[in-house]
């Protein structure tokens, strides 16, 4: 996998995910491209969020800073990268499950590659991240959240398009296959909250 | 549009690089902490290089103490780098000189001097291209004069014996806090840069003078006076933006507070302003 090819692949998936994912699936490189995409995004997101939420805030708490810096931001980056990978695998698994239930035809690897596109637009965070170094931390948090929201919406759009291509169904079904796990998870959490109190009501 | 995927892909890679640079940039803004720290412990075990965000900032070049006499005149000249001056309850001057350090490069420290002339009782401090931390005995210092033409300076002076405080700023940034001061002659000559400061007077008898000679830059000054101190404000403004307030009310020159003539404690503010942005807030 050459660097120019990777650059083209990343850019292509940002504007034409259907075409991009088709090439990757045809070349049987779904897993490696998914992994590389998530790795890049995880580093960007973890570094910038660690800067905004940990490093900048810690500067205002000198006692903690004196004892914990720079271990805390470093740990935050590694934990962030690990968390993004974990979420990728779990989300990919759930989306694959629901996509199959909705008559999807794609395989698990291709689904993982498609789901990895959810994180691709976080490059926006990296591009504008250095601004966070020069503004106060509330402004930095505001900037971070705004960019993350834009990246999230962008990510949902390209991920849905890629999923519809991978599983050969409509974009609406692709969106549903992403939405259903969230609904099920919320119901599950609601159940966890309600069930312990059912005995009290009865 | 033909090369749009390549351009966007490049932006992703640039974003990746910048995201790694960002925490380093923020780390640079944080001063190193002395004493017990994880960093210090890791350094002890030779593991500091394992840290992702290694602090690139400053490295101690020299430290020492100087014995000084009372009524010492402190002259500070900063033409680059930075200085932080504080008063403390000890009886010797403590100084630490830091150079700018980058990994694998020699520590950079252009020039500095910290000297005490016993005969004339003058402590002379000069800084260029490095940073100095200076701790002054609070009861032995009576005059502090600072010339700042570049870099940054922070003065935190809590000295009841301070009688003269003169600052001349032609560039850079100055932040000062002068407190517990009685009758004192204060003169700020500002020709550029940014100056932010506060002066807190304790109860005193006689006249304290605050002279402002401003020809440029930004000046933000908070002055706190005791209740029985009466204020007089005279200004000659030929340019710039000026706002002088007493307890939140803007003053126009000349202003003599009721009872000023017979007051035993007076603060005389004399401003000559030819440019810049000046905000002085007096409160009691």
Architecture overview:
The complex is a heterodimer of chains A (202) and B (284). Chain A is mainly α. Chain A has one domain. In chain A, 43% of the residues are buried. The mean pLDDT of chain A is 84. About 5% of the residues of chain B have low confidence. Chain B is 11% helix and 57% strand. Chain B has two domains: 52 residues, no CATH class; 231 residues. Chain B has a six-stranded parallel β-barrel. Chain B has 284 residues and is mainly beta. The interface between A and B is large, with 45 and 36 residues.
SSE layout:
The complex is a heterodimer of chains A (about 200) and B (about 280).
Chain A: H1 3-15, H2 17-26, H3 30-58, H4 62-68, H5 71-101, H6 108-116, H7 123-132, H8 137-167, H9 171-201
Helix pairs in contact in A: 1-2, 2-8, 3-5, 3-6, 3-7, 3-8, 5-6, 5-9, 6-8, 7-8, 8-9
Chain B: H1 4-28, H2 38-44, E1 58-67, E2 72-88, E3 92-100, E4 111-117, E5 122-128, E6 131-137, E7 141-158, E8 164-169, E9 173-181, E10 185-190, E11 194-201, E12 206-224, E13 230-246, E14 249-250, E15 255-256, E16 265-283
Parallel strand pairs in B: 2-5, 2-6, 2-7, 7-8, 7-9, 8-10, 9-11, 10-12, 11-12, 12-16, 13-16
Antiparallel strand pairs in B: 1-3, 3-6, 4-5, 13-14, 13-15
